[in-house]
């Protein structure tokens, strides 16, 4: 664990909570349909219980996203989170944001993030 990178991650996550709060509140007062909700499957690059728990917690505390289920990893497949997202034009857009969060978390925990999606 990298203390300075972890502190930077916490500050970044706090910013995401604030911007997510603004997105949810501003959409409440807009006419028309509210968001474009979807559930996406997120195969993780996190491997330890601590990394997976921190990732799931980071997603859930961010307004507009919620982990609704988990899938245990096997030798052939990574652990998976199923995430309900209120906003996003496509599944790829939502996954890009979630993988950005995972990259930042893994850099804070390991000092580096694996490249690409699993």
UniProtKB/TrEMBL annotation:
<keyword id="KW-0472">Membrane</keyword>
<dbReference type="GO" id="GO:0005886">
    <property type="term" value="C:plasma membrane"/>
</dbReference>
<dbReference type="Pfam" id="PF01899">
    <property type="entry name" value="MNHE"/>
</dbReference>
<protein>
    <submittedName>
        <fullName>Sodium:proton antiporter</fullName>
    </submittedName>
</protein>
<keyword id="KW-1003">Cell membrane</keyword>
<keyword id="KW-1133">Transmembrane helix</keyword>
<comment type="similarity">
    <text>Belongs to the CPA3 antiporters (TC 2.A.63) subunit E family.</text>
</comment>
<dbReference type="GO" id="GO:0008324">
    <property type="term" value="F:monoatomic cation transmembrane transporter activity"/>
</dbReference>
<dbReference type="InterPro" id="IPR002758">
    <property type="entry name" value="Cation_antiport_E"/>
</dbReference>
<keyword id="KW-0812">Transmembrane</keyword>
